[in-house]
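Many introductory courses stop at the sequence. We go one step further.
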Amino acid sequence: MLKEFKDFIAKGNVMDMAVGIIIGAAFTAIVTSLVKDLINPIIGLFMGGVDLVNNFFVIGGDGTKFESLEAAREAGAAAFAYGSFIMAIINFVIIAFVVFMLVRYVNKAKEAAEKEEAAVEEAPAGPTELDLLKEIAESLKK
């Protein structure tokens, strides 16, 4: 059973998938930072300095006002954090767009490689050695 597990892990698809997951996690951290540190401030600038992540309202409760979403969560209030949800949607759209661009680039590279292979296969082969020898023999007969 241990040998079967080693064979399974050693297969290319499993290793490729593992590398993809690791790179995907790192890429997600980059996109999250992009949205949080670069895009949020720009959106906040257009919204009059409001931090979109801190857009929330407390469901029920005693009417206590909280300075931030984090403060509301620490107090145990049921917060409807629609700003965080909007940021998650922005993260998703950016990640989906970058993945789309990456897949598009890889598909174009594959198509170009396939066209090159097809062109090489379709190219007429030059005369074989036997054809050349027959041609020489015919010209010597003349």
